[in-house]
Design brief:
Length: 600
């Protein structure tokens, strides 16, 4: 097949433009026609920009056109495949996924699922069967996804079908242009290989769980070190808390090992039954960038320090950000005496892993902030925003500050049948009212969020007015001022509820964390990197905590989000990133580190 080039596409008139992109979208030349109208005056600067123009053409189309696009696609392992009437592109994709070799039982299952799905939604089920890596999902993965999505809402499925159509088109375009996402594929493959290390009890169930200093955790550290060493890092070490540290020295003209440093990285521990990209993406993307630089013999204007932080999630011990806290000088000595569920202290776990287990060794890890230009982190979004917008990369303006509370309303338990409504002192309805207020208060602030994640009536009974109701509050906002204002309003409203409903309020603060606004100069550098790819700039806040929050305490920081698939779900096995989006992250990071201007 002749490889298409952007130069050809940019030189083409409208009819030729549509012809060159034939087969990208199934039986829908109108999409290429609309993208041609969006072609920049100087032409498309990247394949990513072309892809986005095609996506935007579909987003701008009326619903009837979108439904027509969905219906232009064949059923999976359906009649058209059996009759050999699919397009060449669809035939190849279904063949790669093994759908042409279904067993009779699998074919019957898909036939039933197709019929039920069409009956419910009125269009065929669409799935990019070549998957996030581009090499194909298994038949079982396809069936599992089919069954899961068959229970979705109409609006979600409509959008999800279109997202999968764009993924199909993306893979086809990469092949038309002969531009496979090699670095993104490397990142994706590394994530898969790292996920082979999981703890007993989870590994047997095919689940990913890696908590601090377990055997699986230590295996991950050894694997990261081996990849860094093979990838051309000049120094690779395991420090006193288990952080994996790789250093790539600056060009000799810039000072070599003595040059100013840029710090980057993320964590490699996980929650229980986790996804494969939370944290780890922020280690693997810089590793892929360094690997390519080393292969080309290219050095940077700064020394790059990539850290795989040993702990961020707080799963084994009641401590979070242990890895990054050691670098900022904020590791709490009391953590060493904490014990896990098996009674093993952190100090003992460190000794078992071959680490010193002393506060002196950990204190020595503190970085001299004046030596660093800043900290940048790449992270999967862990939310639905970029996925909903069909945008692969997002600029993080701030990591939300948060406040958590444990609360309880205490009223009087009484007979549900004999206590008049105006005589009740119902603790549960007091919490319900507070939860609704918190929801409204956060919504009014747009970028803030409020959650009542725990609501418990001790000893509750169907025929008893609740006399006690325990609850939790999790309040987050992009700035400390916004968080504090929301906290004050919700606490004051809780007191008003207690007074009006004649119940007692108990409220205890259990955690407070400061917001971490991104440094403006580093944000501009990320913006330049995203703009160089021809992608739109979309800014958003992070509702989740990250290692960048800790580094923010001692140096400038800025984050880049990468779109997550499956509605952006995270801390879940369905967490997903495509090789193409990982490729864009590598390209953006490479642009950032190769275009730094360092003042003398």
């Amino acid at each position: 097949m002749t490889t298409l080039t952007l130069a050809q596409l940019n030189a083409a008139d409208g009819a030729e433009f549509v012809r060159l992109l034939d087969g990208t979208y199934e039986h829908s030349p109108w999409i290429a026609e609309a993208a041609f109208a969006r072609r920049p005056a100087g032409g498309f600067v990247s394949l990513a920009q072309l892809k986005h123009a095609l996506v935007e053409a579909v987003r701008a189309a009326p619903e009837t056109a979108k439904i027509g696009l969905i219906r232009a696609h064949p059923e999976l392992a359906g009649k058209a495949m059996v009759a050999r009437t699919l397009t060449a592109e669809s035939t190849g994709e279904q063949r790669r996924a093994g759908l042409t070799d279904c067993t009779p039982e699998e074919f019957a299952k898909l036939h039933v699922l197709n019929a039920e799905y069409n009956r419910r939604f009125g269009w065929p089920f669409i799935l990019a069967v070549r998957g996030p890596r581009g090499t194909g999902l298994t038949r079982q993965q396809i069936i599992d996804t089919f069954e899961r999505r068959a229970h979705g809402t109409r609006d979600f499925e409509f959008a999800e079908c279109l997202r999968n159509i764009h993924r199909i088109a993306e893979i086809r375009l990469s092949e038309k242009f002969g531009q496979p996402p090699r670095r993104g594929e490397q990142v994706w493959d590394w994530a898969e290989q790292l996920a082979q290390h999981s703890e007993p009890g989870f590994a047997e169930a095919g689940q990913l769980t890696v908590t601090y200093l377990t055997e699986a955790h230590q295996a991950c550290a050894r694997q990261l070190m081996a990849w860094m060493q093979a990838g051309g890092f000049d120094e690779v070490t395991l420090d006193a808390v288990g952080n994996v540290v790789g250093v790539y020295h600056a060009a000799a003209a810039a000072g070599g090992a003595q040059a100013p440093r840029l710090l980057t990285g993320s964590h490699y521990d996980t929650v229980r039954n986790a996804g494969k990209y939370d944290g780890r993406l922020g280690i693997l993307v810089p590793m892929a960038a360094v690997r390519e630089l080393a292969q080309r013999g290219e050095r940077l204007p700064v020394t790059l320090e990539v850290v795989g932080f040993a702990e961020e999630e707080g799963q084994r011990y009641r401590a979070t950000f242990q890895g990054s806290s050691a670098l900022t000088g904020h590791f709490n000595p009391a953590w060493l005496d904490q014990v896990d569920a098996q009674g093993v202290s952190m100090r003992e776990a460190m000794h078992a892993a071959g680490l010193p287990g002393t506060i002196e060794a950990i204190a020595a890890l503190q970085r001299k902030a004046s030596r660093y230009l800043g900290f940048v982190e790449i992270h999967i979004e862990q939310g639905p925003v970029l996925n909903d917008l069909d945008v692969p990369l997002g600029l993080v303006t701030s990591i939300n500050g948060s406040a958590r509370y444990r609360g309880e309303f205490i009223g009087v338990a009484s007979h549900a049948g004999t206590t008049p409504m105006d005589r009740r002192r119902d603790a549960a309805t007091a919490v319900a009212e507070l939860a609704l207020y918190a929801e409204a208060r956060a919504s009014a602030d747009e970028t803030s969020v409020a959650t009542v994640g725990v609501l418990e009536v001790p000893g509750g009974s169907v025929n008893v007015v609740p006399g006690r109701c325990r609850f939790s509050l999790d309040l987050r906002a992009p700035t400390n001022a916004q968080r504090n204002a929301m906290v004050m309003d919700i606490k004051q409203h809780a007191e008003r509820i207690a007074k009006r409903r004649r119940v007692t309020l108990k409220l205890e603060e259990t955690m407070i964390a400061s917001a971490a606004p991104s440094n403006r100069r580093w944000m501009q550098r990320w913006e330049a990197a995203v703009r160089a790819l021809g992608l739109p700039l979309h800014s958003l806040t992070s509702g989740a905590g990250h290692d960048a929050m800790k580094l923010h305490e001692v140096m400038p920081q800025a984050m880049l989000f990468v779109r997550g698939g499956n509605a952006g779900i995270s801390h879940n096995p369905l967490e997903s990133v495509t090789a193409d989006d990982a490729e864009l992250a590598v390209q953006a990071f490479t642009h950032l580190i190769t275009h730094l201007e360092i003042a003398p």
